[in-house]
């Protein structure tokens, strides 16, 4: 962090640095199209690379409205010169790729992707319509294709959400609401609030929401330490209250303590979390249901990210239509409560597996860095060392939605999916040149690495639980 820039903790004014200029986002961060949360992770910091990585050129026009001055040339930072050289090479490559047309999406490719993805829903619907009242096997087949449809909608929504396809933000967002809210049941605003922050602070402890899954899963030692510290604090606090007065005893018993001091929290801390590798594959089956519920809560409670009442109504309406159509098809085209429940839960669980197992490949089991460490690293370095590429054939690449090129995607988020494989050797060469760890593995090995991360965290949890109570 540059010492000349006020931190959000030191000043009410919230400023960011982009290309050597100061911008005051004190009021704007509430209306930021990508969400307030992502901006707040870079208050008082140089956000040049993350800005250019996540925005089209047209965003610079809006940014100019918040210009308040230049950063003094004497302002110092803690980034090593070699790391700056690495970032400069990736910036140069980005400019070259832009000039050569790599960032221009193929409209025919994405038309094919949309049509072929919608075809999966059609297949599932036809199987249900013609055979749902006759065959349990048909219901299983329909569940599989519906899960595949929802998963592929997620990858397409991701592409449009990163503005890889259209030049105009509105067209991309319209497609995200169609594919995400209506087809998949996930809110655009919920996703952007979460995912943009993930890209800005990838695997940064305390900032990246994708690794903040406690108390269900602990992906790193920091998460275990933070969770058990809170448990220990509340346990001691409640113990002191119990010793002070009988009224405190009654109050604690009735409320279950404060936060980490409840009976449920203690049960999880002692009997569940220290054994998370045992239930991991059961938990991820619930991923789609969990994210769908989070989407509903977000849009109905918080509204749209840009505070637009129209977008909120549009998103909420599409979510309601999604569940209305899904439940109506389940009831009308399937006979018997058992088979209806089978279709409902199997389609949800299969989607959970298809999404979560791919997500786990991306960053889980890769280095988690502290906020202090992040201050000494370039944006591009963080993206590369915390991401994992997965070696796949054409079918695996299709299944993963191109996210097996996770490093390239995180370095250039607006790069269309069909350009990732072409750019991959260029990015890897720059990483090798500057001795930046570029990690590529198989799907199975990546899964084992994720499980290793869970195992390390659960071993830390077993040690900490003895000290917490």
Automatic annotation (TrEMBL):
Which keywords belong to this entry? Lipid metabolism, Membrane, Oxidoreductase, Transmembrane, Transmembrane helix
Q: Which CDD domains match?
A: Delta6-FADS-like
Keyword Transmembrane among UniProt keywords:
yes
The compartments listed are: Membrane
**Coiled-coil region list:** none
Tell me a GO biological process for this protein: lipid metabolic process
Q: Report domain Cytochrome b5 heme-binding positions.
A: 1-72
Concerning Pfam families, the annotation shows: Cyt-b5, FA_desaturase
Matching InterPro entries: Cyt_B5-like_heme/steroid-bd (IPR001199), Cyt_B5-like_heme/steroid_sf (IPR036400), FA_desaturase_dom (IPR005804), Fatty_acid_desaturase (IPR012171)
Named from the GO MF annotations, one term is: oxidoreductase activity, acting on paired donors, with oxidation of a pair of donors resulting in the reduction of molecular oxygen to two molecules of water
Q: Determine if Metal-binding is one of this entry's keywords.
A: no
Q: Got a GO cellular component term for this one?
A: membrane
The family line of this record is: Belongs to the fatty acid desaturase type 1 family.
| Entry protein name | Delta-6 fatty acid desaturase
Q: Which organism is it from?
A: Absidia repens
Q: What is the lineage of its organism?
A: Eukaryota, Fungi, Fungi incertae sedis, Mucoromycota, Mucoromycotina
